[in-house]
Amino acid sequence: SPRGLTCSSPANEMFSWVKQEQGGRNKDGEMYQTVTEGLQSLYTKKLLPLEETYLFHDFHSPALEAADFQSKPMVLLVGQYSTGKTTFIRYLLEQDFPGMRIGPEPTTDGFIAVMHGENEGVVPGNALVVDPKKPFRKLNAFGNSFLNRFICSQMPNQVLQSISIIDTPGILSGEKQRISRGYDFAEVLRWFGERVDRIILLFDAHKLDISDEFSEAIKAFKGQDDKIRVVLNKADQVDTQQLMRVYGALMWSLGKVINTPEVVRVYLGSFWAKPLQNTENRRLFEAESQDLFRDIQSLPRNAALRKLNDLIKRARLAKVHAYIISYLKKEMPSLFGREKKKEELIMRLPEIYTTLQREHHISPGDFPNVAKMQDMLQHYDFSKFPSLKMKLIESVDKMLATKIAVLMAMIREEESKQPPAMVSGGAFEGSQDGPFGQGYGEGISAGADTEDWIVSRDKHRYDEIFYTLMPVNGKITGVNAKKEMMNSRLPNTVLGKIWKLADCDRDGMLDDEEFALAQHLIKIKLEGYELPTELPDHLVPPAHRKNPTADALYNHTED
Q1: What's the CA gap between 265 and 262, in Å, rounded?
Q2: Which of 51, 64, 75, 455 has a beta carbon 3.0–4.6 Å from 56's, enabling a disulfide?
Q3: What is the CATH number of domain 443-550?
Q4: Which residues face 76 on adjacent strands?
Q5: Average pLDDT in the 498-526 region?
Q6: 74-298: CATH architecture
């Protein structure tokens, strides 16, 4: 096949790449073996020319580099001071990291990128932004006052082999702090927001107010709503009734700042390794922290997809930006009255947006913020803007229509061949297995490590019911069992599953042990636990076990 990307079989595809590697290129000059390489190639060949022509980097976001495509998934922590951001990182890593300071006052006064490195140490910001292996080179645009407050903390840690974590300065309330930072805090957050895989907003159960600066920080993540997760930390310091009120108040405050119809996911808990002050909600906190851990653990698996998604978002914005810039150029007079026309066009920008929406069938959500755009356009000479080059736009459209689909298929193929490792080590280790794993000894796994058959503990009660159902030869029919089982009010689909699990010998009838098992499974379901697809060994009734020595172990005595 002349084009390596349209081959049918994976084997052909592989050989086409080999041929290309030996110097042969396909028709479009593409040559990539991994998704990361593919993304980078599409960006530099298709999207970057459009961005450079229409000054996209001056208006929106600096150009992407190789390190942006190859970096590990990143997690950004944002919150007001003393909500436990640095402690949260310490909790995940289970060890101190260089440059870490924790205290009730605002301690972390800068950005700390916690990353994996063979040797423990701190790299200052000015050295970081010239390192081509790190994805921070474009941060030099924020100037010295920012770089003096930016460090990379490197250490050998298992968690950091899969993800990097970025700690941010505690956000303060009041106007003074906003002015004295010396750099544009919200812009720095927006820069990180576009490049990270998860944004975790931390709140303290005692500090729910969202200050002006925090509100601006959250607004900086506009368009990244799918990355945001909210953690309500220190939730063990209030009792259940207060926690309900705190949760309600938090949702109300967030609703005013995050303008989406969907509710953001909030995880409650106490994310540090100290004893819980209030143990009423222990099970809730454990379930919530497991959910959050699972969410973070899945990041390496979804990293390629996230980068692809961000590239598509960027391409759409770049296209819209090109339309805006070329429209402004088209409207400019050739000789006189340029300044007046420029002012008029800036004033009319909302109308221009509407015109372009109709003309090019673009959704309103793809357009950049009007006020910000008007502000930035003041500093440019419109007559020097480039006119519309349809070839560049068509190239990006083609990329979105065909090339992205090829990469999607490659992502699935890569995953099936070699699934990326889950985040492990630190707090992610050890809580899954053993008696402290979530759900251990509860629900279906109750009685797994006891010698007797757990159902026999309540069997005398179940037997009383069993003998009222008129057994014949020690068994009751499905009709009689159904009447009794329907009393649980569980839906038929669930009861059908319970019947399947309990009827061990598949004879369409239940003996006393099978009936007791059915009642036990109903009890488990009513307590809110899930049913298994197959009956675990410890629940198989003794009379139905294949191994007679196991019977002796369970020393089951008939009543």
Answers
A1: 9
A2: 51
A3: 1.10.238.10
A4: 166, 199
A5: 90
A6: 3-Layer(aba) Sandwich (3.40)
Top CATH class of 35-65+305-417 equals mainly alpha
Same fold flag, 74-298 and 443-550: no
**Secondary structure element (H or E) that encloses residue 74, with its range:** strand 74-79
Question: Given the structure tokens 């081959």, which residue do they identify?
Answer: 7
What angle, rounded to 10 degrees, do the helices at 185-195 and 212-219 form? Answer: 30
Give pTM, 2 decimals: 0.72
Q: Give the H or E element holding residue 196.
A: none
The per-residue pLDDT for range 197-210, each reduced to its tens digit, is 999 999 988 877 78
List the domain boundaries for the chain. Answer: 35-65+305-417, 74-298, 443-550
Helix/strand/coil for 146: helix
Contact predicate 483/499, CB 8 Å: no
Distance between CA 296 and CA 59 in Å, rounded? Answer: 32
If one counts every other C-beta atom within 10 angstroms of the C-beta of residue 49, the result is 15
Do 35 and 410 form a contact (C-beta atoms < 8 A)?
yes
152-161, 245-254, 547-556: lowest mean pLDDT where? 547-556
